[in-house]
User: What shape does this take?
Amino acid sequence: MKKFLFTTLPSNDLGLLTRSLPIAQELSKAGHTIAFSSPAKAPEKLIKDAGYENLVPKHPLYQIDKYSFWGVINHLKSQKYRDEYGNRLKFLYKLMRAIPRKFAPSTAEIWNMDHAAAIAGMMNSNFVQANCEAYEQLMLGFKPDCIVDFWNPFACISARLLQIPLITVIQADGHPHNKGLIWWKDPPKNLPTALPTINRIITGRGLKAIAKMEELNIGDLTLIVGTPETDPVQDNTNCIYIGPILWEKSDTVLPEWIQDIDPNKPVIWIYSGNPRYRKKGTVLDSDIILYASINTLGEEDVTVLLTTGHHELPKEFLSLPDNFHFSKYLPGLRTAAMCDLMIHHGGYGSCQTGLFTGTPQVIIPTFSERESNARRIASLGAGEFVLPKTTGDNKKEIDLTEFRTKVKLVLSTSAYLKNAQIYSNKLKTYGGPGKAAEIIENFAINKNYRTA
Assistant: This one.
């Protein structure tokens, strides 16, 4: 039996966890040992609920609060980290050296993985080296036979440096042969780039330089979620499509109060994900979904289920309309299957959930990767999207009339439901988590990329 370490982009969202947990579950059933590494709070809870060990790097620098002075001080107050580093000065020195000095301007238009890396602070070599060191130490301690990664550049670099077989599970937009996260228009010149920093680090450790950050997403084995119709790649040679990967525990049930919902009214599920990443607004925030839905659907003769994915509802939204029912978390597949419409932020997992259950969607994408997903759904005829505008203070604005019109259009037009069901049937022919686990297992044991 083999040991697999599952790594994900260390963000406080559930999307990548709901993509990785189903594969982990299938490998566990086959007798393999699985551990995760995802240090943020919401993923930690989901990993724990699923019954897996979560290995957190000894100094998770990526989690520092905006890499600020007070973020460092808060870490210093932790007895756990003081014990690990011996004394405050040593810990402070290590952290301060790794705090990025260069950030790209915060923007909702994230053009590609290189641009995203620059925004995240990866133009700073100390920051990159410190995070890679943390993952190297974690990997050396766990001694996995393979790393199974979901968009964590530090983990991918560390696996290569340690020569541990790397399996990546990516979206089509993360493939180096595609145009990036914004494929419908040409990028501006002189975008900030983390590529020189990355190449300086990896070539200094004996690895070959890369031409695009997306090359980090290509492993010894690369799996692409979705299908060629839902997630096209210009040249997918040496990659394998695995269909939808969606998480739901087999014993999960909907709460009893849902049985009291009026069956004669349309049921709409609103999923905002993390409404607000920090006290001050960021371009990633999804509270615009809450604002738009509350200010339009509260007046309609519909039943609304509102969830945030284990996140708190911001105080200004606590007074909900009478037809709203709030729960931090509801099982996604079961909830989508019982609803007439999904409204969400455009996360890939949410888009795939709607397609898998054949549920039409209206999407308010909060940044470019989510806009890409929304455009793909609209191109399939399975939903519509409404683009918010981002103001100078990172606040988002939306045309409520356009939003209300598109919600009514999707609810009243049977073609959206028909198209969603067509692609639901196509997605289910690709095997999903079971097939992905079989391919990964064959690779880990036999170094064979294909199943029999």
